[in-house]
Amino acid sequence: MPAYRLRGAVRATDGTIGPPLIxxxxxxxxxxxxxxxxxxxxxxxxxxxxxxxxxxDEGGNLVWSLRLADREG
Length: 73
Known about the structure:
By secondary structure, the chain is an alpha+beta fold. It is built from two helices and four strands; from the N terminus they run ββαββα. The model has no long low-confidence stretch (mean pLDDT 88).
């Protein structure tokens, strides 16, 4: 089963993204399932600071991000 990497960090007002505060591996059969699992995960104390989330596949390709989700929603 493919492994995806969920990462989260603080995005500054100038758009720069700081070092990841969230770095988790999500295994799922496909991209849609990985996004669903990322959205369904339990919040942690580190999440309170995070305002940028993104999910990449095993090749490092962007699968989902808050910005992409905003456009798709």
